[in-house]
Amino acid sequence: MDRLYLACIWAAGVAIVCMSLIIPWGVFTRYVLGTGSQWPEPIAILLMMVFTFIGAAAGYRANAHIAVTMLTDVLPTPLRKLCAWFVDLCMAAACTFVAWYGTRLSLGTMSQSISELPWLPVGVTYAALPLGSFATLLFVLERRWVGPQDHRKLMRFEEADPVVGTTPQEAR
What are phi and psi of 16, to 5 degrees? Predict the structure, then answer.
């Protein structure tokens, strides 16, 4: 699962970097050169889909998403655990739904093409939907069977000491 997590991180990171390079190119060609390129916008949208859905899977595993826990924090431990099971059940249902219908959407639109990019099937732009939701579903199942992974050093790389490679708490 660590490799899947790192693949999601890298895919989302590469997508956002490429998108950050492509959008200024489109602006430059349109407003400076006076001849707008047709490809930057659809490619940027494709990359945003990758960044959003693949990156969301990694964010879920690292517990880096927004969560309102005001109610569950005051509940007794048994009810808190029941709520966690319910949330994971809802996440699994949503991921299954998006994976199933996202796959159908992606496969159903493979014969269509984008007018600006006739070589790129529309289904490719939707492929991030089922892939990201399937990865998230795997991370939901991992959380239920193995436990949360957000405490591990792999998920908390920003807290690592650059010299030693450990967190300040681990170094003590």
Answer: -70, -35
pTM value?
0.79
Cα 102 to Cα 91, 116, 126: the distances in Å are: 16, 23, 7
Could you state, in order of their start, the residue ranges of all structural domains in the chain? 2-155
- Chain length of the chain: 172
CA dihedral for 123, 127, 130, 133, sign (positive or negative):
negative
Q: Which of 49, 52, 55 is nearest to 125 (CA)?
A: 49
Q: What is the pLDDT of residues 152-169, one digit of tens each?
A: 777 766 665 555 555 555
Which structure tokens are listed for 168?
A: 């300040």
Q: Which distant-in-sequence residues (6+ apart) come within 8 Å of 132 by Cβ?
A: 8, 52, 53, 54, 55, 56, 57
Tokens of 118: 């006739």
C-alpha span between 87 and 6 (Å, rounded): 24
Residue-by-residue DSSP string for 98-148? HHHHHHHHHHHTTT-B-SS-TTSBHHHHHTHHHHHHHHHHHHHHHHHHT--
